[in-house]
């Protein structure tokens, strides 16, 4: 595996180089800023770029955006000393595969590097298979578009919501948004009422049922937060935790609950639920997967 390191802290670069060398990785270049890194990465085309989130001039996210816009197709591992839910969520959206937390921990780096290597090998194997089939004149079958319901239920299941009573509500909400081709999420009250109409609830009962739906969805989101926090408390490199926790929830709330679980604390402060963010992110994911 060929690596490129972008970090304005020299000590971090040296430590990463040493750890990668032990893993038989080859560091083909390094830079102390995104501005200096971009031309080198485009020229050297490393398999993986390890890049710091916070840097002067261009931060890690801006550097990744510029690299992708100029044709770089490798993988990214983000180095981060801060836990800022907005920045972490944005990093995942621009294509970051994994996070390494600062201060750098050798065991964590080795674990992430192994997983990245396995992912790249799988990707290359699939590419080889496709190329082999193409040589035999195989015709690629058109991709069948998944239904909104299938996408939503799969994601809810991944977040630990198993046949939850709110699953039907959330599916109906996503179907309404998809039918409306909504660009932004409308006020939740109106959205709940539209979903209830779609579910066949009589007009006279909608006001009462809307409040009940709101509570069901809040309880369901709490269930998901508890499930992900439990996963993260055991191993924060678990795929479901890495993918869903920073995208769908307030990461500080998840982190607080993880700490309580790890410390077996009985002094539990209620976590905050942001239903609008959860539904908005879920809708964005539905749109992306149906493209």
UniProtKB/TrEMBL annotation:
<protein>
    <submittedName>
        <fullName>Histidine kinase</fullName>
    </submittedName>
</protein>
<keyword id="KW-0597">Phosphoprotein</keyword>
<dbReference type="InterPro" id="IPR052048">
    <property type="entry name" value="ST_Response_Regulator"/>
</dbReference>
<dbReference type="InterPro" id="IPR011006">
    <property type="entry name" value="CheY-like_superfamily"/>
</dbReference>
<keyword id="KW-0808">Transferase</keyword>
<dbReference type="InterPro" id="IPR013972">
    <property type="entry name" value="YcbB"/>
</dbReference>
<dbReference type="Pfam" id="PF08664">
    <property type="entry name" value="YcbB"/>
</dbReference>
<dbReference type="GO" id="GO:0016301">
    <property type="term" value="F:kinase activity"/>
</dbReference>
<feature type="domain" description="Response regulatory">
    <location>
        <begin position="2"/>
        <end position="117"/>
    </location>
</feature>
<dbReference type="InterPro" id="IPR001789">
    <property type="entry name" value="Sig_transdc_resp-reg_receiver"/>
</dbReference>
<keyword id="KW-0418">Kinase</keyword>
<feature type="modified residue" description="4-aspartylphosphate">
    <location>
        <position position="52"/>
    </location>
</feature>
<dbReference type="Pfam" id="PF00072">
    <property type="entry name" value="Response_reg"/>
</dbReference>
